[in-house]
């Protein structure tokens, strides 16, 4: 019995929730993958998945065993790497990032990393929804502000400021904005479900304002496009709209004012004793790359 191989298969099935998806990635028959899981469950004396029409769903026992499996496979990889630290990297890394950050800043970093390490594969999850590292089996998550579980390792990797911008056409057609209180009479565009904007001025002054909000549940790209189209004032990360500001499609509103709450880019990883070399290497590449790309745009 290849225990480590079986546990890696178990992890893959939990990650993808489908026999066919795992079989396709491994170049194996679905029946072969299914039989191997059956043998593992029989050896453990526990059912790890409920097989439903919607896919594979972890049982209570399966969720408990998944944590143990990840610990064992990480230990096995670390053991095999001790004598090969100078060898080429190989393995799989699961990375989650907000959509716009992933498209603008992360993708170019990954391109260079993958060229340098052809033995590494990366599963990139781009979403503006919160992605749980434990539930979704994420090795590395990039966050913009916010909070994470206490048992995760969190480090700030790049400065990020959220500023106010609008299209020149919008500003020409609407009342002047000379102070934060003026925003209450304007259309606001922003991600998330917050009801108010908390702003900080250049002298440390604080202001809280509630602009009108006609559109909700926007993606970062859709929000920018609506702002350029003259639909309102947007609260956006400075790196996200820098190109639009330089091109004149957007202009700063209330220069010097920005979001009061921290929105810095943070790198979050599970707290574990053993971190595979490919994960460590990608973390380092992301930290260096994001600082280079974003800190100069803050």
Short description:
The protein is an alpha+beta fold and 298 residues long. The protein contains 10 helices and 14 strands.
How far the N terminus sits from the C terminus, by CA atoms, comes to 54 Å
Shape: elongated
Proportion of residues in helical segments: 40-55%
User: Mean pLDDT across all residues, rounded?
Assistant: 86
Structural class: alpha+beta
Widest β-sheet, arrangement of strands: 4-3-5-14-6
Q: Give the biggest sheet.
A: 5 strands, mixed
Number of helices: 10
Radius of gyration: 23 Å
Please count the beta strands (DSSP E, at least 2 residues each): 14
H-E string: HHHEEHEHEHEEEHEEEHEHEEEH
Low-confidence stretches: none
Tell me the fraction of residues in β-strands, as a range: 15-25%
Explain how this protein is built:
With 298 residues, the protein is α+β, with helices and mostly antiparallel strands. 42% of the residues lie in helices and 21% in strands. The chain has a 5-stranded mixed beta sheet, covered by helices on one side. Strands 8-11-7-12 form a 4-stranded mixed beta sheet. α5 (99-116) links the parallel β3 (91-97) and β4 (120-126). The N and C termini lie far apart (54 Å).
